[in-house]
Amino acid sequence: MPKNNIPPVSVSLFSKMARRFQALRKSAADHFACFLPSPPGKLSGFFLERLFSGVSMDAGQADPLKSLPKNAVIVYVVKHKSKFDFLFSQTRYRALGLPVPRLAFDMGIWIWQPVSRAFRIVLALLDEWIRHRRLLNPYQTHYYDRALFETGCAMLFLVEKKGFYRRFVKAGDDPLTFLIQFQKHTDRPVFLVTQLLFFTRYPAQSTNRLIDVMFGSSEHPGSIKKFFTLMQSPGKTFAELSEPLNLQKWLDQKEVLTAPIEMQAHRLRGQLLLQNDAHRQATTGPVIKSVEEIKESILTTDRMRRCMEKCSASTGEPIYRIRKQADGYINEIAANYRLSMIRFLSVVVKWLVNSMFDGVVVDRAGLSRVKVASQKGSLILVPCHKSHIDYLILSYLLYHNNMACPLVTAGKNLSFWPLGPIFRRGGAFFLRRSFKGETLYKDVFSAYLHKLLEEGFNIELFIEGGRSRSGKLLRPKLGMISMLLDAYRNGACKDMIFVPVYIGYDRIIEEHAYIHEVEGGKKEDENLGQVIRARRFLKKRYGKIYVNFHQPLSLREFLSGSETPISAMSKADVAVLCRNLSWRIINAIDQETVVTPHTLVAAAILNIAKPWFTREELTEGVEVYLGWATHQSAKLADTLILNPASATDHAIEAYLSRKLIEKAPGDRGGSDEKTHYMANGTRRNLLDFYKSNSITVFLPAAFTALAILKKDAFQFNSMGLSVDYAALQTFFKYEFAFDLDRSAIQCVRSALKAFIDDAILMPHPTLPDQYQITSAGYRKLRLFAAFVKPYFESYKVTLQFLKTNRKTDLDTREKLKRIQTLGLQMLKNREIDRIESISRINYTNGLTYFSSLGINGLEDPETISSLETLIQTHLALLPP
Description:
There is one protein chain. The chain is α/β, with parallel strands linked by helices. α1 packs across α5, α14 (about 290-300) packs across α21 (about 440-455) and α32 packs across α35 (about 775-785). The radius of gyration is 34 Å and the shape is globular. The N and C termini lie far apart (about 130 Å).
């Protein structure tokens, strides 16, 4: 055999190896390190699961993604390029049922690749370099197109060290440009979902610390800092997803549609960065500055300089004294927000809730809407105010749902030691009850409010001005809303998101103090002694707390329907806007009212037209009210939904144990159902407080029932009911907040339908608009109408005072004192029936209404006489 000849067997083996290598090279050409074909192996998977087990992620984060179309392409967007974020998604998303990204744009995921695939990737790179002196490009080979179509999920990064240089200077490939082209050539919708990892709840600081320079900031920590944070503080790191951005809809916008693709990619990157930063700020809060920084930035503005110079000129005080005064006002007002104090208060509030209450029932869907809205502008949280627990529980809920706690407006009366400094560090800023005669103080407070909005803080305010002593919502105080509108007019922020919040209780801790004040007693100023005595409350149980969130209201959207922009509005127009907005907020809070078993039982006790009643009669009254609330789709306490009978019995037993109701003297009833009870005459005002918690739910029924009873016939025509309904709304316009979007006709129609469904009324079989009251219906109509009897009696007393007193210079406090005395005398003489009508709050609202008609004394006897007739006519229809 010749020396250089190769045996046939060797030739065959060489050919097979060549063909195998060629096939391997071809298959390797479609392999890139940016793709992870399968979950990590057992060993690496175990390590990653242990590493990321300390990262919490609420299951609710998956809800927006689960509602997307099944053929959607989902691309997770991370601000900074990070293998850590990509591996987290690989480990945790599968468990949550979320799409798992296998493709990472412009990232080499080498160490987690299977060995065989890593070999193919290296082979492909070598082959391309040897043959063409270049590296394989997944954009040019359309690999990204194929991989994205196949998996339907990927991850891209907005910021990397050399990303801008590559895109802008070298005109390299941009993943966003690729995605835009991808969307334009496919019918499958592409959704961009921002992913954020939070390694701390602390807001960004105004200056960098040395540790941040060495190991990265809290927003963008380095790998070492991430690892040690997870090891040292497991559970404190958490992940969140923003609302998906529909790329197709975004591209269809007019300002985007005609732009070049490079400009489209630039705008898209800018919007995604803004969304990322807004989400992060909504979670951790804005940059925290010291009080000194805030003070300097406020007092050195041109606006404040002009205000101080004007004040100096008008008072004759030297300018340095005015500046000193303004400096002192900032110290008096400003919060000294510290997250460490928030964390401490969170522990305290949790302990208080567990010790005193039976849990907090939270509107989770509403809270999710608020969380999304917080990324679009500063939140202005506007809860109703029934208890000191309100501001504690709201901040507690926001903190534990990964939202920035608001800065809370608080009365100066709460700034006493030691709670004042604690509240100030917890985010409270203090204001005086009145700005009358305090021009400089008002200017400083307005400037402080402007600064908070400019910095991006959320603000919590109580639109009623103080805690409600009557149980129902008070009329709105317009001062804070007016100052917020002024700040918005002056460009403090692009938008303000008003969030009406309902906070309700089965029982409030301040109930006895409230009744003392309603009955004419003097309010005790907050002090250290009250704090010490408050420990007695820890021995009692106060039922549940209910928190509901109304749909957030964007001020910018609210103003979009106005022909005149707010910057061009006159002072009178802004005042109208302020009043309209305030009443809409009050009405929105009312719409979120939770009807509780304690409310229904209190209403039934007070509205039954008998001095004593059986448990069976009481339960029937509760069922009537529950049927109405259900028909109106009112918010019901969870216990009423699960087991109304058991919830009712529990509330009755609670009132019995607290002696709000008691067995009638000499009762010989056998079974519990036949036992006779009566309301404790000295505690009716307390029952009225709990009845009033949900009274606005029943006002349409009460007004319609009164209008029907006024017909004085068992068969009647519905014409004219809406006129009487509207008249009652006008009469009580300072007492209740009515739905501005529902006319009297709509309310009456809805009530008539509910009455028919409950067999209170029967429509005539042939005559339109004719109805007949059933035998049981008459009793139920009186049950509904009885809701407003205490208010008619309060107004009767007020009108009697005005009738018998000439217009004098008495201040409001002295007037109320005299009306109170007159009311007690009329109650003793049996000119009125209900002790709960002896209410300073009702008297105040009555004075306001009569004053709006020009009645301040007996100068207008004809008007007074007509009002007396109106009140007496309606009282005659109501049960004693």
